[in-house]
Amino acid sequence: MKPFSRSIITSLTFLASLTPVVRAEDAAAPKKPEATTNLDDMVVTGNRSGQTLFDQLQPATVLKDQDLQMKLQPTLGETLNNEPGVSSTYFGPGASRPIIRGLGDDRVRVLQNGTSVLDVSNVSPDHAVASDPLTIKSVEVLRGPASLLYGPNTVGGVVNVIDDRIPTEKFTGTWPQGKFDLGAGSADELLSSSGAITWGAGPIVFHLDGFDRQTDDIHIPGFARSERERLLNPLPPGTPEPYGILPNSATDSKGAGLGSSYIWDDGYVGLSYSGIDSTYGTVAEPDVTIGLRQRRWDFRGAFYHPAEWIREINYKFGYSDYNHTEFEGSAPGTQFTIEGFDARAELLHEKFHGFEGAFGFESQRSNFSALGDEAFLPHVENLTNSGFVFEETPLTDKVRLQLAARYDHQSNDTEADPKFGPGLSRDFDAFSASAGIVYNPVDDYALTFSVAYTQRPPTYVELFANGPHVATGTVEVGDPNLGTENSLAFDASVRKNAGFVTGSVSGFYYRFNDYISLQPTGAIDPVELLPIFNYQAINADIYGAEAEAVFHLLAPAEAGDTKVMADPKATIPAAMNRDTQKLDLILRADFVHAQDRRTGEDLPQMPPVRGTAALDYHIGKFSARLEGTAAAEQNRTANYELPTDGYFLVNASVGYDLALGGVKTTLYVKGTNLTDAEVRQSTSVLKDIAPMAGRGVMVGLRGEF
What we know:
The protein has 705 residues and is mostly beta strands. Helix content is 5%, strand content 53%. The chain has 6 helices and 35 strands. The model is unreliable at 1-38 and 559-578 (pLDDT under 50).
C-alpha cells in the first residue's frame, strides 16, 4: 500500500500523461433558495420545465454535498445501494452497477453529465462503471420508465453522474476556488485522495480535478463462501476455506479531468478531457484481475433565448475510447474494447397554446470487440438514431399533464468470425410513449400517476452471445431472432414536502411481453463444464413500492420566531436558534416482486424487502447520523439460484466543521457494519462467494476554499 504522498499531485500528473483529447459535462442545476426538505431540490435529468423533486412526475433521488460524502463508496452501485428502490450488482468492491426496481443491465441507463458513460458495464457484472464517485458533484436517480428523453433502455430508470468539468457560470472570484478530500479506512485498508480547482477571468473559466484510491483485500466477518454453498459444493479435502479476508478483492484506481468554458450572458460553450485507470480483482477467480482504461472527451454548450419562442437550445457530444484486459496472473487474457460517441441536441420552447416542453435528436454509435480465448461475443457495430419530444400543459390550477414520446432506429452488425460464424445484421424500430398527471389537491401535497409504453430493442449481448462467461460461471447463448421487448408500466406517487412529516410513497407495476431473460437450459457444456443459459423472450410481471418519511423532530425556527426556554421569560432570537439543533428521523422501505407470468417462477437476482431507520442530528458545527438497515431473507429465487439470508446492518457517522486558514474544513468519521454482520446481496451473482465487508471505520478530511 502506497502512502498518502501519491495523492492529488499524482492524479494531476496522470492527467498530463493523457493523449490530447477533450471532454464535456451536462447541465448543472439552477441555483435556488434552500428548501424545507430535499423534495425541493432541482433535478437536471429528464426535467425540461424547471420542476423540483416535489413537482415533477417521476420519482427521483438526488445525492449531493454532505449526504453524498457520507454515502460515498468505491463504486457507483454501492454508493447508491439502499437509496429508495435502488440496489447493486456488487461484483466485489471493484465493480458494481445500479439496479433500479429489480431491473439492471440495459434497462438502467448510466449517464455522465447527460450523455452515455460509454463503457461495457452493461455487458457483464464484473465490468466496472467508468466513472468514479470521488470526482462527482452530485448523482441523480430517476426511477421508472418516464425518462424517454434518454431512450428505451431506461425502463428501470436513469442514473446521471454530474461533475463540474465544464463550468456553466462566469468566474467572479479573485482567487481560485476548489475542494479536496483525504480518507483512510480499516475494512479495506483504504487510502484515498481527491481534489478539484476552478479558476478564470470573466467569461473564460477552467476546471481541473483528480483522484487516487487504493484498497487491499477486504476484511469479512466469516467465511467467504456461504454456508449453503459450502454444504452443496465442498472443497477438495485439505483445501482451506477462505475466512476473514475476501481473496482477490484489492483495487487501485486513479483519474483526472481538465475542462474549460467560454461563458456569455446568452449561453456558453465548453470542452473537457478526462481519463480513468483502474485495476481490481474479479473475486470470482483467485488470480484474475481487470485493468480498465478509459479516455473520454466531450463538447457541450447552450444558447439562451435565441428567439422569442425558444427558451434554450443545448447540445452535447461525448466520445469515449474504452478498453479493459482480464489478466490471469500477469498474463493478459480476454480484452474488451468499445469506442464510440453519444451526441444529442435539444430545443426547449416557450409556451405555445398552453404547452411548454422540448424536442430533440440523439445519435449513438459504438464499435465493440472482445478478443481472446474466453471472448463470448463477436465484433459488433451498433448505431442508434432517435427523435424525442416532451410536453407539459396545465389542465386546471391544480392539475398538470405531461406527455413524452420517442422513436429509435437501431442497427447491429457483426463481422464474420471463425468462432462465431458469418456476419449478421439486425435492425430494429422502437416506439415509446408516456403520459402522466401531477395533481396538487392542497398546498404541500402532490399526487402523480403515469403510464408508459416502451419498446426496447435487444442488446448485442442478447442477440449474439455464444460462449463461456467465466465471470458468471455460465455458457451464454444469444438469439439473433429476438424481437423488441415490450412493456406497459404504471406508476403512482403521493408526496408531502412541508410540515412535521415530509416524504413520499410510490407504487409501480410493469407488464412485460417478450421480456428478454437469461434462462437455464439444464444442460452442461461438455467442453467448458459450465451450465448453458439461453437468452429467451418470456412474459413477466414486476411490481413493488418505495416509501420514505422524514419526521422533523427538531427544526430551526423560521426567521423572526423565538424559541421559549425552560424559563418562560427567557427567549433566544431566531438568528441564534437557526444554527443550534436539527434532528430528523428518516424511515425508508422498498420491495420488488418479479415473476414469469406464464409459469409463476420467480426472476433471478431480485432485491429483498428492505427497511431503513436513521437519526440525523446537527447542532452548530457538529453533525451525527445513526442508521440501521434490515433486509429480509430472499427466498423467492429462480431455478439454480440459492436463497439469501436476511441481515441487519448498522452504520454511523460524525462530522465537525473547522476553519483552517480560511478553508472551510470538515473532519468526519464513518463507521460501517458496526455489528460485523454477514451481508450478502441477493442481486449479486457472487452472493454465495463474496459477502460485503465487515466492521470498518473511515476517517476523512474534506475542505472547500
